[in-house]
Amino acid sequence: MIDRGSLIVFEGCDRSGKTTQCNKLITQLEADGHKAKYLKFPDRTTKIGQLINSYLGQSCDLDDHAIHLLYSANRWEAIHTMKSLINQGTTLIVDRYAYSGVAYTAAKEGFTLDWCKQPDIGLPQPDKVFYLTLSSEALSRRGGFGDERYEKKDIQDKVAQNFQKLKDGDWEEIDADKSVEDLHRELYSRVKQVMEDSKKKALGKLWT
Ligand code: NYM
Ligand code: MG
């Protein structure tokens, strides 16, 4: 039997450097002969993802519950691909996952963390969540947010508080306020360790 790949998730507020780091990890893993694939949620390429994209770009409005469920559906529609890649030995480096789903919706008025978690219960459980953090000062040094929905300081502060509430034993908080290269080196060695530790373990189910 071949060793399975790992499911490694990156979480953090907008502009924390997740996408840059995920892509650098993929390049390095492949260069070192590992099978690795980058996935990102929301996956804006599917039909559901296109709807999410219009919502984020403010070209359509949706009820807050409805958009929450669409984000979740956008993950469920990927799980067959995800599981089969992992079982064939490919490590998935995932840019946002269900934790973003919960943290962003629960930042809105009238939503509990518990309600927000329900639709994602049972998704594949990450072997590790790297949570990239930046102080508000470090964030503002990175320049302004774009004009997508949620890219405002008060929302990002609430999202960061929610991430703290979602942290469990599989999370590692990483201070992202360092150079791209230094952060990459740190993450690469952590990722290699996770791959080593998880290859003989069964993949779990999220929040069960
Ligand atoms: N987002 C992302 C959610 O609100 N719920 C989710 O389930 C996910 C995966 O989408 N501001 C939000 C967080 C981001 C926005 O993501 C787009 P990105 O990584 O900026 O493309
Ligand atoms: Mg963004």
UniProtKB/TrEMBL annotation:
One Gene Ontology term, aspect cellular component: nucleus
Protein name per its UniProtKB record: Thymidylate kinase
Keyword Kinase appears in the UniProt entry: yes
Thymidylate kinase-like domain: residues covered: 10-186
Domain of life: Eukaryota
Organism of provenance: Patella caerulea
Claim: Transmembrane helix is one of the keywords in the record: no
PROSITE patterns: THYMIDYLATE_KINASE (PS01331)
Pathway: Pyrimidine metabolism; dTTP biosynthesis
Gene Ontology BP terms: dTDP biosynthetic process; dTTP biosynthetic process; dUDP biosynthetic process
Enzyme Commission no: 2.7.4.9
Enzyme class: transferase
Keywords attached to this entry: ATP-binding, Kinase, Nucleotide biosynthesis, Nucleotide-binding, Transferase
Stated family: Belongs to the thymidylate kinase family.
GO molecular function: ATP binding; dTMP kinase activity; nucleoside diphosphate kinase activity
